[in-house]
Design a protein that fits this description.
The complex is a heterodimer of chains A (about 500) and B (about 525). With about 500 residues, chain A is an alpha+beta fold. The longest helix of chain A is centred in the first third of the chain and has 21 residues. In chain A, α1 packs across α2 and α3 runs parallel beside α4. Helix content of chain A is about 20%, strand content about 35%. By secondary structure, chain B is of the alpha+beta class. Chain B folds into 3 domains: about 130 residues, no CATH class; about 100 residues, Porphobilinogen deaminase, C-terminal domain (Double Stranded RNA Binding Domain); about 240 residues, no CATH class. Helices cover about 25% and strands about 35% of the residues of chain B. In chain B, a hairpin with a 2-residue loop joins β1 and β2. In chain B, α1 packs across α2 and α3 runs parallel beside α5. Chain B is globular. The termini of chain B are far apart. Classes of the chains: A alpha+beta (about 500), B alpha+beta (about 525). Chains A and B meet through β1, β2, β3, α2 and β4 of A and β2, β3, α2, β7 and α8 of B.
Chain lengths: ~500, ~525
């Protein structure tokens, strides 16, 4: 049972009053969260005994974190967190623990100070907050039902040895937070709820794989998605059966929204933080202000994005959550940041070298992205603020429709899904590798031709090959989910003139 | 004032009261078949330093539970539901803890019923074709009682956090002191006591306590020639002494944290100055060292040997297994590697993946994956063992108290041969010596991989030559294993601190390793 926003607010108020009386503490921050992640994992296998719905579960965590800076030395800082108990006694105990854990960090610059009072955000509450377990179970089974019915309807038997596999999940993530610092005149609260569903359909008798996903912030959207996702994934898989296995070599390709989102998530976002530049580990090291992508591409993070599922009105450091423009018309103009990391980079003795000549002395990095996130992407009381996105949007200039994109390509491969994308030589090098895992086709004469067998190709490339010289870019930004990522992605397909693909041997 | 020790007292309370709580619940609900409760208390201390300056310290205690309830909708159809929650300090008050657990039991039970009813309705409507949904839980037969104590010299609960602060700072300073080409570094030290309790409605009470201590180092070196990001971990199921003084265990020794950090950073300096590997065309002879083979054992043997993957339960996330196309067509009993190659998972050995019982209460035991090249077994849970017609072997493990158990590796490694590594290298006319794993990328069923190494050396006429950075090994898995023609006598395990699996992601500690191996593969470069 999640705690109400008013309960969190009241606790933060009491804690602030108590800590303010302690003269040994010069500065403090109290952060409190209540979160719930309900998950229904899908596991239907037509030829293997299964449960259909596996791990129908919830994870709940409520607690608070105190961060302090001591009066005797403004750089002597400590923190501690406590789960489950919201009492004055728990605050006192935590305070003692935080004092034991202090270190003198010469780069600590203080907790959030401005503005003293935040204008209350008007936020439409999601009805996902009231969704029952029965409704989630029903929606999850509707995905399985839709998938099995689609297989029968399209001429493939569910019985016998179709090898139908339905995997994925339907998840509802909710969180509430309250925060204040010794500099604020108010207690700031925020709450959010969104669902995500990712469905994979395999028809192993045809070596076919199709996927479908949805991301949203209302119960109605979740229910309608559940009615269609299983069917869509199976339909896609049926179209992709008995695919070809292309040989190794350079290819012209169109990367669909999921591969673009995956490459941005694993290869680009980590490099677009003040922390990465300070640590000399950004793929764009020394290139702030430079053209790092093609002029047709812009990238921003927006916690208030109207179409975005991950909506936030304050950061987990108590500041108003705002859009952060990262790349505009190909030029690197902004970074995700926390209060600590902004200060650390802005005061870094090697700042000029780390950012590059075009950054200048005056560029600032507003800390609009300090979030404390847990495993499922919800906010957690025991996490420390780190740079993270919310709704990551790639916009294009001069983008064209997907059909036209295929037309520009002529002959090549449409890559609809990739898997296990990693910075194979470290983040700074920008080299990545991944495998083409489904939803992919040959393109011949600008038209979709034969399907490509899932897991038959490995991509070996660098991010510059993807984003610096695209052949053409799609006009529409489409929602895409990246497994394990707290962000929602809204990205276009991108056509590339040449990328190296190596053949993967068939399963023994 | 409440001490962190109070939370550990909740374990003692639940040893006494837990089985009755669960058995009463099951008896009171006609369609409930079985319930279990995992309860876990962790006391953790950590510290980190960056670029030779203190950065952070923390001491925290955590208590969490995960409840599973199985319920019937009919004689053929059942469902299960789960609830996990972090209860923290609330666990220090028995009445509050019991109230929370009762709420959790109700919630898990209702989920089990919703799921079972929806399933029954769907099966009825479909008539035929959905018989596979009738998987019944393989529930434990007889209760188990056991008590396992943690091993340590320094109790993590009693350690002064200042000792961790000093150690991390010393490690980071040692790295910073190596020169201007160290652009950035972090050294971190952690020690914790983790006490897990499993109680069930049939009366099992299994109490396992484990001490973990871990040191981590991340370093970025750069110079006019290039840059290198390196990171690595040392870890033991022991107290602070194992990272402060080093550990001399036979299978998984480690240096003290300061020495470890310095060595990693010195290597990064050398690599930043080394040339990028320009890979040759086609396959070459590769000799891979134990640290590199730890990741091969992890990704290409261990993960695809997890029965949940093999049975397609992870198809939407971490993928399937190249060892099992279907129940009828799979690699069990078939050759998947050279006859020199054997591999196993063994939770009974000392290592970062050691335990006595898994989180379903099954004793952990050695599972042979490759027996002289023949694929011979999967890691399993009770349910997957039933689906495969095998005995449970004790590999269902959750990463935290609030998570559900998934099938996980324990200590998973290639077994040693009899050849000294020097001889394996000495026999190579032209090839490459690939050392220390870095980053993996794996095909969906793990049938193909590209794994990068920290260091790649030329081998010419049996001698190790030039050092390269940004090299990786690319191969189809079966082909790589079939081509193994030498296995070293130098088995080593490596602590793996961050194996991710599940939805939401569970990050688990384990060990992987092997001896030096020689095979053929393509190389990737930078």
């Amino acid at each position: 049972m999640m705690l109400k926003a008013a309960e969190l607010k009241r606790f933060v108020q009491e804690a602030a009053r108590l800590i303010a009386k302690d003269e040994t503490i010069g500065e403090f921050e109290i952060y409190c969260s209540s979160g719930e992640h309900r998950i229904a994992r899908l596991n239907f296998t037509s030829d293997i005994p299964c449960r259909g719905l596996e791990e129908f579960k919830s994870l709940e965590a409520d607690g608070f974190q105190i961060r302090i800076a001591m009066t005797r030395d403004a750089h002597e800082v400590g923190s501690t967190s406590e789960a489950g108990e919201f009492t004055l006694n728990a605050i006192r105990t935590s305070l003692e623990r935080a004092k034991r854990a202090t270190v003198i960090d010469p780069h600590f610059s203080g907790f959030a100070t401005e503005p003293k009072k935040l204008k209350a955000a008007v936020r439409e509450k999601s009805d996902l907050a009231r969704l029952s377990d029965a409704a989630i179970a029903n929606a999850a089974w509707n995905v399985v039902r839709g998938a099995t019915e689609a297989l029968g309807k399209f001429g493939a038997p569910t019985a016998g040895h179709a090898g139908l596999v339905i995997g994925g999940d339907l998840s509802v993530i909710r969180d509430r937070v309250a925060i204040t610092t010794s500099h604020f005149d108010d207690i700031r609260v925020d709450e959010g709820a969104h669902f995500s569903s990712s469905v994979t359909a395999l028809i192993e008798s045809r070596d076919a794989k199709g996927t479908a996903s949805a991301l949203g912030s209302s119960a109605a959207h979740m229910r309608s998605a559940a009615m269609s996702l299983g069917r869509e994934a199976v339909q896609r898989a049926l179209k992709l059966g008995h695919g070809v296995r292309p040989s190794s070599g350079p290819y012209r390709v169109v990367l669909g929204p999921q591969p673009v989102a995956e490459i941005i998530n694993y290869m680009v976002m980590g490099s677009l933080t003040t922390g990465a530049f300070h640590a000399a580990s950004s793929a764009y090291q020394g290139r702030f202000g430079d053209d790092v992508m093609h002029a047709s591409l812009s990238l921003f993070d927006d916690p208030n994005h109207k179409a975005g599922a991950v909506r936030r009105s304050i950061t987990c450091e108590g500041l108003a959550a705002r859009r952060a423009d990262l790349i505009r018309d190909g030029k690197l103009i902004g970074l995700l940041s926390t209060i600590y990391d902004s200060h650390r980079l802005e005061t870094d003795e090697e700042r000029a070298e780390k950012l590059g000549a075009k950054a200048g002395d005056k560029v600032k990095f507003p800390p609009f992205n300090g979030y404390r996130l847990g495993e499922g992407g919800g906010r957690r009381f025991d996490a420390h603020p780190a740079s993270a996105g919310s709704n990551v949007v790639m916009r294009t200039r001069g983008g064209i429709a997907e059909n036209a994109l295929l037309g520009q390509l002529g002959d090549g491969i449409y890559i609809g899904r990739v898997w296990y994308t990693y910075p194979i030589n470290g983040q700074r090098a920008g080299d990545f590798t991944c495998t083409v895992s489904g939803d992919s086709y040959l393109i011949r004469g600008g038209k979709i031709a034969e399907p490509v067998a899932p897991n038959s190709l490995r991509v070996n490339a660098n991010i510059a090959e993807v984003f610096a010289k695209p052949l053409a870019v799609g006009a529409r930004s489409i929602a895409a989910i990246v497994w394990g990522s707290p962000e929602g992605y809204y990205v276009p397909p991108i056509a590339l003139g040449s990328i190296n693909l190596s053949a993967v041997g068939a399963n023994p | 004032m409440r001490s962190s020790g109070d939370l550990f007292e909740a374990i003692e309370y639940l040893k006494r009261e837990g089985p009755t709580l669960l058995s009463r619940f099951v008896k009171a609900h006609r369609d409930a078949e079985y319930a279990d409760l995992r309860f876990e208390v962790v006391m953790n201390r950590s510290a980190s330093a960056t670029n030779g300056e203190p950065r952070d310290a923390n001491e925290s205690s955590m208590a969490a539970y995960c409840i599973t309830v199985h319920a019937r909708a009919s004689s053929e159809v059942s469902g299960h539901g789960q609830t996990g929650a972090e209860v923290g300090a609330l666990a220090g008050t028995p009445a509050k803890l019991v109230a929370a657990l009762k709420r959790g039991l109700d919630q898990a039970y209702q989920r089990a019923r919703f799921s079972a009813r929806e399933k029954a309705a769907m099966m009825k409507a479909a008539g035929r074709g959905l018989e596979s949904l009738a998987l019944r839980a393989a529930l434990p037969g007889a209760p188990v009682h056991d008590e396992i104590a943690a091993e340590y010299k320094h109790d993590p609960r009693a350690l002064d956090t200042d000792q961790l602060k000093r150690l991390a700072l010393e490690g980071s300073r040692a790295v910073s002191g190596l020169g201007k080409d160290i652009a950035f570094n972090v050294a971190a030290a952690m020690t914790e006591l983790r006490h897990e309790l499993l109680v069930s409605s049939i009366g099992s009470v299994i109490s396992q306590a484990t001490a973990f201590s871990q040191g981590d180092c991340y370093v970025v070196a750069q110079n006019a020639d290039g840059h290198q990001e390196s990171y690595d971990t040392i870890g033991q199921q022991r107290g602070f002494e194992s990272i402060a003084e080093g550990w001399r265990g036979e299978l998984m020794p480690n240096a003290d944290l300061v020495t470890f950090c310095k060595e990693l950073a010195s290597e990064a300096q050398q690599l930043a100055a080394a040339s990028l590997l320009k890979p040759p065309e086609g396959e070459v002879v590769v000799v891979t060292d134990p640290h590199f083979n730890a990741l091969v054992a992890h990704e290409i043997v261990g993960h695809p040997s997890e029965a949940d993957r093999a049975l397609k339960m992870e198809a939407g996330y971490a993928g399937r297994s190249w060892f099992l196309k279907s129940l009828a067509e799979n690699q069990l009993g078939h050759r998947v590697g050279s006859e020199l190659l054997s591999a196993c998972s063994d939770p009974t050995l000392d290592g970062y993946g050691h335990y006595r019982y898994d989180h379903e209460g099954t004793p952990g035991r050695r599972v042979m994956h490759f027996d002289r090249g023949i694929f011979s077994g999967f890691l399993n849970s009770r349910d997957t063992a039933a689906a495969l017609g095998a005995e449970p072997n004790g590999h269902a493990r959750a990463s935290e108290g609030w998570h559900v158990p998934l099938i996980r590796m324990s200590n998973t490694f290639f077994l040693p041969g009899e050849t000294p590594p020097e001889k394996i290298i000495g026999e190579v006319d032209r090839g490459f010596y690939v050392c220390a794993h870095q980053i993996p990328s794996i095909a969906e069923s793990r049938e193909n991989f590209r794994i990068s190494a920290r260091r790649v050396y030329e081998i010419e006429n049996g001698r190790i030559g030039r050092l390269f950075r940004s090299g990786s090994v690319i191969a189809d898995s079966r082909s790589f294993f079939m081509n193994v023609d030498a296995v070293g006598d130098d088995l080593r395990l490596v602590a793996i601190p961050n194996c991710g699996k599940g939805q939401p992601m569970q990050v688990k500690r384990m060990s992987n390793g092997g001896p030096t191996l020689r095979s053929r593969a393509r190389l990737g470069g930078g």
